[in-house]
């Protein structure tokens, strides 16, 4: 497939979030490096929705104490927990997305990349990696790195809630072929290379990994966490870890 040569825009995700917060008809696209296009995605129906699906609400009930939302974006899960009485700190690398989160009522958000988190030991009781943020910006090895970095910042007995997705849980031939190509390269099949496209602009290409439950379990065993619960299906599930 032909891939258009588009000019880059700094913080394009923030631009999308800001525009969509003012116009619910705004959509954007995600393009994979093989040319596959996931088109007309609506932030108003996902990241900007104030509703949380029942199966996610069931899992978020495990959140307690002070919560760290990593890659909070415009604040979907942060606000849902905040409205239920929890103290939530959100971090994100997008200034625009954090502006939207503040405008929507987020009390504490910080401009901070996931791999640059810097909080005192035992600062939080719960951590969230929702919206596939555990695998944004790296390959499968980044899972263990992030769990290890986060570990001292969570109090003993605290929990981590992350969504998971099995790369092979698809019926679409175009995705099966992509994952198979990764296996032939000796790589984890869920390692993608993607970019966002919006209003004639694009982000730089970046790594995005669909992290499955098995990979989270393996990384947890290496970094001081243990599996507690697993919800949902391989195609779209959630794992809860306990900090030892």
Q: Could you characterize the architecture of this molecule?
A:
- The protein is an alpha/beta fold and 244 residues long.
- The chain has one domain: Rossmann fold (3-Layer(aba) Sandwich).
- It has seven helices and twelve strands.
- Strands 5-4-3-6-7-12-11 form a seven-stranded mixed sheet, sandwiched between helices. Strands 1, 2, 8, 9 and 10 form a five-stranded antiparallel sheet that branches.
- Strand 1 and strand 2 (37-41) form a beta hairpin.
- The longest helix is centred in the C-terminal third of the chain and has 12 residues, at 173-184.
- The protein is globular, with a radius of gyration of 18 Å.
Brief write-up:
This protein has helices at about 10-20, 55-60, 75-80, 95-105, 140-150, 175-185, 215-220, and strands at about 30, 35-40, 65-70, 85-90, 110, 125-130, 155-165, 190-200, 200, 205-210, 225-230, 235-244. The protein has about 240 residues and is of the alpha/beta class.
């Amino acid at each position: 497939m032909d891939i258009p040569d588009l000019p880059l825009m700094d913080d394009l995700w923030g631009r999308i979030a800001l525009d969509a917060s003012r116009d619910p008809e705004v959509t954007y696209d995600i393009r994979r490096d093989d040319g596959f296009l996931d088109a007309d995605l609506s932030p108003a129906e996902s990241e900007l929705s104030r509703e949380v699906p029942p199966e996610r609400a069931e899992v978020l009930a495990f959140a307690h104490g002070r919560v760290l939302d990593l890659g909070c974006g415009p604040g979907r899960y942060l606000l849902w927990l905040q409205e239920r009485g929890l103290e939530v700190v959100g971090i994100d690398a997008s200034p625009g997305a954090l502006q939207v989160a503040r405008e929507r009522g987020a009390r504490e958000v910080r401009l901070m990349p996931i791999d640059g988190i810097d909080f005192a030991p035992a600062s939080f009781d719960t951590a969230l990696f929702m919206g596939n943020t555990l695998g944004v910006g790296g390959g499968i090895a980044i899972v263990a790195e992030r769990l290890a970095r986060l570990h001292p910042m969570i109090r003993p007995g605290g929990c981590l809630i992350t969504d998971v997705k099995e790369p092979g849980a698809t019926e679409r031939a175009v995705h099966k072929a992509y994952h198979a190509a990764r296996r032939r390269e000796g790589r984890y099949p869920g390692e993608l290379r993607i970019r966002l496209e919006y209003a004639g602009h694009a982000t730089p290409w970046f790594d995005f990994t669909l992290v499955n439950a098995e990979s989270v379990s393996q990384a947890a065993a290496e970094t001081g966490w243990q599996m507690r619960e697993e919800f949902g299906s391989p195609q779209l599930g959630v794992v809860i870890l306990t900090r030892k």
